[in-house]
Amino acid sequence: MTVISLSRIMPPPAKPLEAEGSWLHAEGSLGMGLPDDFKDFIRIYGSGRIGRFMWVLNPFAKNPNINLLEQSREQLESLRYLRDRGETNPYALYPESGGLLPVAVTDNGDVIHWLTRGVAVDWAIVVNDSRSPDYEQFNCNLTEFLAGLLDQSLICGILPTFDFDGATEFFSRS
Predict the structure, then answer these.
(1) Could you tell me the residue ranges of all domains in the chain?
(2) DSSP assignment, residue 47?
(3) Cβ atoms of 70 and 32 closer than 8 Å
(4) Which of 36, 69, 103, 124 is 20 to 30 A distant from 145 in Cα terms?
(5) Spatial separation of the C-alpha atoms in residues 160 and 123, rounded to whole Å
(6) Going by CATH, does the domain composed of 3-160 fall within 3.40.1580?
(7) Helix (H) or strand (E) holding 147
(8) What percentage of the chain has pLDDT greater than the value 90?
(9) Per-residue model confidence (pLDDT) at position 1
């Protein structure tokens, strides 16, 4: 699925915020290329919140709470801290080979990660429950995952069902 298919379920804003910047810089800072569907999402949607609940991290966001580079570092540091203190994590953490890399967060504190195994186009999505060491993996790209949540063809046991008011709306803000 592409971001165009997602836009049929969740219309993008007329003027996306923070939708442009240097992908070369962002990917250089991370040390790897990012999936094209993610780049298309940022270009078409920019910074904002899905259904008043989920934020896709944006490498061009000025707000550090939704900036991909800032939040990925912070979230991975937290997971490393827990792992170093004995919490079991079934996944490696980026920059380890095939490690998790955060791509979105929820207002509940859940983190949606890419599983960076293989080439970027093939990365799976892994959701981590904020209040437990539970993970749930989905073998699809980010836009397929988001569309599945919004049209309820994909059920994630960690995230609430998107059946509340405004679920398929994108609220632009940073």
Answers:
(1) 3-160
(2) S
(3) no
(4) 69
(5) 23
(6) yes
(7) helix 142-151
(8) 78
(9) 60
